[in-house]
Amino acid sequence: MQSFFKEIESSEKGRQLALEAVLNAIKLNADGLIPAIAQQYDSGEVLMMAWMNREALEETLATGRVCYYSRSREKLWRKGESSGQQQHLKSAALDCDGDTLLLQVDQTGPACHTGRRSCFYVELGAHGATIVSDVMIDPALLYQGKKS
Question: Quick one: fold of 4-109?
Fold first, then answer.
């Protein structure tokens, strides 16, 4: 039996697909999760990677406010609920295999819990690693008085 994503490979641009059929075909891992990469919609900057379950994805699509699944807390995590630094969805896309999401977002302030704009701030090279971005907001201030 061919997979849903294999069947739509040759589809022409503009073809409409039923959302329920696409959601049912998403390839979740053994924990029921799919990786989601958040990218700033206007600059293309990759901000972070987190996990979503189907409920988080459905909530994100319905509300426009990005919701992830926290593996450490084992519950839905609405980006910014602890820090106030929210992500608002501009668009969501699945890769060709249906096992990775790309979220185009409008990020308020830093996306990283370290207070940096992006979680990807350690650049690796053949002879070492370099911190490539400054802290925007001290994490102690970012989460001051907030439940984490």
Answer: Ubiquitin-like (UB roll) (3.10.20)
